[in-house]
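BACKBONE GEOMETRY TOKENS:
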Amino acid sequence: MGSSGASWKLADHPKLPKGKTVAVVVLDGWGEAKPDQYNCIHVAETPTMDSLKKGDPDKWRLVKAHGSAVGLPTEDDMGNSEVGHNALGAGRIFAQGAKLVDLALESGKIYDGEGFKYISECFEKGTLHLIGLLSDGGVHSRLDQLLLLLKGSSERGAKRIRVHILTDGRDVLDGSSVGFVETLENYLAELRGKGVDAQIASGGGRMYVTMDRYENDWEVVKRGWDAQVLGEAPFKFRNAVEGVKQLRAAPKASDQYLPPFVIADESGKPVGPIVDGDAVVTINFRADRMVMVAKAFEYEDFDKFDRVRVPKIRYAGMLQYDGELKLPSHYLVSPPEIDRTSGEYLVHNGIRTFACSETVKFGHVTFFWNGNRSGYFNEELEEYVEIPSDSGITFNVQPKMKALEIGEKVRDAILSGKFDQVRVNIPNGDMVGHTGDIEATVVACKAADEAVKMILDAIEQVGGIYVVTADHGNAEDMVKRNKTGQPLLDKGGKIQILTSHTCQPVPIAIGGPGLAPGCRFRRDIPTGGLANVAATVMNLHGFEAPSDYEPTLVEVVDI
């Protein structure tokens, strides 16, 4: 299945040979920052990555992995794995998630689309339910977009609105949930002043309620379903602000893991369970943590947990969360049309491809790399291997994750001689970095480095070429900082841990015995980004990149 009309034949590169095995290694959450005790990559023993950095200065550099470099609206927008792998694979920059939604809301186009028309048919008699992450983190959702959607929906006939909130504390500071709930409550009060029956109906922490991904733990989605649809939860409150404050007062409580709660009226009755005739919108623009709840709302033959009651609703996502599954079938904002990805080109030019990661990032080296497209371009030339991630534990408990298993699988693929390209994501820096556990993240970075060594050793054996890079930062800075870069302290004088991604640049290194003499990084692309990597990889396979791709980072000089 190709993009129609595209000519797939790539021209030969005038100076770079074909036929070398190329390993493309993506370290997840591995940025470049000042060396200090909160830079887990610096603290960890990472001799392989260190040797790349300290080696030939023409074969190591930094690239941008956030903001406009990956299609996000502003330079304050940290990168993430989805937009990062889209850019790495597509070789061009496409307007992404938040930006697409911003454009649709600004222009009002969102209200003219099929998706909004579909849900608005419930406004006359039913309730509009909005479910999603409540923060300004900008990774999965943004509070300002929710407020604009509330405004636009109420102006276009929504008379009864219920918001089901998921508290963050992962992409934003832990504890910031209370402020976000207050902001939302104030706005809902304004809507009530205008005659709209608008209130918060339920809530819970994002890692414990609704927002699981990759079918890791369906219980997370069930807790959300029980609160949002059935109106059942272990905690009932009259008021969401007080409720969140009360739940946060428990020992070891954190925004990410707040238990589910429902808001009830004075008689104890839930104010907003989802019932027949209602409309539901999941407001997150990022896909990975919405796919499971989308299946629960959309699939008739759903069997992952007992839904008890399946209301006849009109459901839409803010965006379509899975293009291949066409899930959900209705959505408010159309996705970027990512066509002609590097993976598709290379397969059309006979490049036998192996892609591998563990469950939590497997989709990144396949689906996101291939332009939000599931499956193979050509089954005869491609093999994708998923190693099951640990489930039922947080990743700081086993910080080595499956790094060594991934390394072994990729090493074996290289040594088999069956593949021209092996593509891999090593997730440790990101997944363990998100837990905020500094000691565990140091262990994670060491394990990732060991996996890189296994892959580079195999490339050495077969006379191949390596490209080692990352998709965004995380593990290189684990502390919140003030404007001057000093660590921020909480009221008790403890450092404030940073669990989110960063806006730091990421490294890219090239090398291996198969790299042509005189091949080096160009000096005329100082602000290169992740989208420049695709053309670079195509060159290393001996091909010229398509003319509309972001320019390659490499050149060949006479030596």
Notes: Residues 307 and 549 are 46 Å apart (CA to CA).
